[in-house]
Specification:
Chain A is mainly alpha-helical. Chain A has six helices and three strands. Chains in contact: A-B, A-C, B-C. At the B-C interface, strand 2, strand 3 and helix 4 of B face helix 1, helix 2, helix 10, strand 6 and strand 7 of C.
Chain lengths: 179, 186, 386
């Protein structure tokens, strides 16, 4: 059947970025904090998770509190890519292109099971999807769920901020602290 | 008219009637269901078009005898579903495209081409619609030789001889076709 | 050397196959698949003359997820969560179509209480879907505030729903012969409260948005679709009702207990984007009417048939089952060979037919109006691509 298709792989994205003009440790540290506190995600909804991503930006969960509310429709204006949904084989080259169009430094959140591993759409003889976005672009933070709750995506955002600055900026949720 | 009579029956009476007649075949969602030959398809679809039907979708099945295309039609004013079934050989496809009668059929036919590789005669733009153009291997919904079932196994006790669409009765039946459950808003 | 830039061969497969008109002063423009106003990953190849569209061709399949193939691979219960992922905005209607098709083929009975629970949850879900459409459509047209209000209401409904269904968005709540869990008094009282609240909100929405001069300029007399165009393309749902045809599956071939409720089918003769807008706004109010009637008449009893099979195994044969989703007529053509998984399951996605008329309707309109038309069709791309 479609097993011949399993061999079809996509080239990994070009991850090179320009060297910073000023590369002094204290300056970099300050810049990193600025970057972490004003991440600009790309409006890039693929499937179901995109709706929860919208909820993440709306009044109740309000990602603006953590500096990530400026959703940009253009990859050239954003530095955080939230891959929210299943990546089909048809879409894969375009995801790579969008990633390459983003100016560095840039970060990627794989949101939902589909983006992490193909999720519910992986079975023998599957012919249409890419099993995990990390096979085509580098991923920084994985947020599991089908779809993840907006709180989950917020937690993912905190981890991106931690990755950029080396420090967690926000208190842990109560239940997590108790453990 | 039998439809009128059925409408006037109230709900509890209907339930009672269902209880007493256990053998009544279940409603399958089809009010009329025909097998037609590929040659007659265009004429049959034209008749449905004149009777005010719209095309719901085109479904396709892979079976021992080849492919079966199922065209579903329904109507806005006087709802009632008509199914047209066309059998196709595995190799030689001679089913005509109906996009010039129902432009909406264009995409449905491309979808059948994607999933089953059926080449509709006279289709202007038979490109992959949902599949990746680089898709390798056979069309994805084609079954393995061993998994295919025959008409007999899938539709037990059903007449599978093509209907004569020139017949007056065919025209009369589709014109009077209606869903027994339909309630007039007025 | 080829001087006609329109026949540039550097584009991808679809760009190369695109057949432009014979005119020489036009430009080919690619819109999507990553474009905020296409609500997902729809791509449209446009041939434009200045700001006017000469020819538009949607390209689909960027989120094709093989739902029809999966139905043949997985057993019936395993497939239960799938329909919710086809159309995540009106997940329960899709779940209902699948469950209903299997029930129809098996001749399964559903207890009355389960039918009422289905109606209530499905209508709540419909309101949620329309609210999201409303917010996103206005976002397309340049108004940011309404989506904040819409999500405010959506979150409350999602809170109510997640207590009984267990999820916020992709509900898998219906089972063959009933639903997976019963509703309680808290659900009933919270739903009543929300219905009362929504009625007040609709007045505010009307004053704030519907009567807004800027909105009316963007939607009135734009994207006119006649009933006959709908018929030729098979468009259903609010698109058809916005053209003045009162066709609703809940009335035309009533399933479940819909024939017991008193509700109107809103239809507007304007045929434009405003007509479709008003149909959806009215439909939310009709849904509230249905929910309140269903809550009043909610019978006691089982929420799932005591003899409902754990492993559905319908007999050989085929059925067609249609339900009214937020976007139109959802149909499932199920063919069974008597095995534990479907021989063939064909999904009729309403958005698929609704979008197919876009090529014809968008001819001669401005690009900005085409965005308005696209939004008024209420597209959910994973449903179209399946």
């Amino acid at each position: 059947m479609a097993q011949e298709n399993q061999g079809l792989t996509f080239p990994f994205a070009d991850t090179t970025t320009d060297e910073p003009i000023v590369d002094i440790a204290p300056v970099r540290k300050i810049l990193d904090i600025c970057r972490a506190m004003s991440l600009w995600p790309m409006t890039f909804g693929l499937a179901c998770c995109a709706i929860e991503m919208m909820g993440f930006g709306m009044a109740r969960f309000d990602s603006a509190r953590f500096g990530a509310e400026v959703f940009r429709p253009s990859p050239r204006q954003s530095d955080l890519m939230i891959v929210a949904g299943t990546i089909s084989r048809k879409m894969a080259p375009l995801v790579v292109r969008l990633y390459e169009q983003m100016p560095g430094p840039k970060w990627v959140i794989a949101m939902g099971n589909c983006a992490i591993s193909g999720g519910p759409f992986v079975y023998k003889d599957q012919y249409g999807i890419v099993e995990g976005v990390d096979t085509i672009i580098p991923v920084d933070v994985y947020v599991p769920g089908c779809p993840p709750r907006p709180e989950g995506l917020l937690e993912g955002l905190f981890h991106v901020q931690k990755k950029i600055t080396g420090k967690r900026w926000w208190p842990l949720p109560q239940t997590a602290e108790a453990n | 008219m039998s439809d009128q009579a059925e409408k006037s029956v109230t709900a509890p009476e209907k339930e009672e009637a269902a209880k007493t007649e256990e053998k009544v075949p279940l409603y399958t969602g089809y009010d009329l269901d025909y097998f037609v030959t590929p040659k007659d398809l265009i004429d049959a679809v034209r008749k449905l078009d004149q009777a005010g039907f719209f095309l719901e979708d085109i479904s396709c099945l892979d079976m021992k005898e080849g492919f079966q295309l199922v065209y579903h039609f329904d109507r806005f004013d006087q709802p009632g579903r008509v199914g047209l079934r066309v059998m196709q050989d595995r190799e030689n496809h001679d089913v005509p495209s109906i996009h010039h009668i129902y432009p909406g059929a264009d995409w449905h036919e491309r979808e059948c081409f994607d999933f089953f590789g059926i080449r509709f005669k006279g289709h202007p733009n038979l490109l992959p619609l949902l599949l990746d153009p680089d898709h390798q291997g056979p069309p994805p919904l084609i079954k393995d030789e061993s998994a295919r079932k025959s008409l007999e196994e899938l539709y037990p006790d059903r007449v599978t001889t093509p209907v004569n669409i020139e017949d007056e009765q065919f025209t009369r039946e589709i014109t009077n076709c209606s869903n027994p459950k339909y309630r007039n808003p007025s | 050397m080829n001087l006609d830039l329109r026949l540039d061969t550097s584009g991808d497969f679809y760009a190369q196959k695109f057949q432009p008109t014979k005119r020489e002063d036009t430009l080919i423009l690619n819109m999507g698949p990553q474009h905020p106003s296409t609500h997902g990953v729809l791509r449209i190849i446009l041939e434009i003359d200045g700001e006017y569209i000469v020819r538009a061709q949607p390209v689909l399949g960027y989120i094709h997820r093989m739902h029809e193939k999966m139905a043949e691979v997985m057993s019936y219960p395993q497939y239960l969560p799938n329909p919710a992922r086809t159309d995540y905005l009106h997940a329960l209607a899709w779940g209902w179509a699948h469950v209903g098709a299997v029930e129809r083929l098996m001749g399964l009975e559903v207890p009355e209480r389960a039918e009422f629970i289905r109606v209530i949850t499905c209508e709540l879900n419909r309101i949620n879907s329309h609210l999201l459409w409303w917010g996103a459509y206005l976002l397309d047209l340049g108004a940011f505030t309404p989506i904040m209000y819409a999500f405010d209401d959506r979150e409350i409904i999602m809170d109510i729903m997640q207590r009984v269904t267990g999820s916020r968005l992709t509900y898998c709540y219906y089972r063959f012969g009933g639903v997976s869990g019963d509703i309680d008094d808290r659900f009933v009282s919270e739903t009543r409260e929300q219905c009362a609240r929504m009625k007040e909100r609709f007045k505010m929405y009307k004053a704030l948005v519907t009567e807004n001069f800027i909105l009316r300029k963007r939607v009135e007399e734009i994207g006119e679709i006649s009933v006959d165009t709908c018929r030729r393309y098979g468009a259903t749902g609010p698109v058809l009702r916005g053209s003045g045809q009162e066709y609703d599956v809940r009335r035309a071939e009533p399933y479940s207990v819909y024939d017991r409720f008193d509700f109107n089918i809103p239809a507007y003769n304007d045929c434009d984007a405003m007509g479709r807008y008003l149909v959806r706004m009215d439909e939310m109010q009709e849904s509230i009417k249905i929910i309140e009637q269903a809550l009043d008449a909610l019978p006691e009893g089982d929420f799932i048939h005591p003899k409902a099979p754990k492993r559905a195994k319908p007999p050989a044969g085929d059925v067609y089952f249609a339900v009214e989703g937020a976007r139109g007529k959802i149909g499932m053509h199920l063919v069974s060979d008597g095995g534990k998984s479907a021989y063939r399951l064909k999904l009729r996605a309403p958005g698929f037919s609704n979008l197919s008329l876009f090529g014809e309707v968008s001819q001669g309109t401005l690009i900005s109006d085409a965005v308005s038309i696209l939004g008024s069709l209420d597209l959910v791309i994973p449903e179209i691509d399946r």
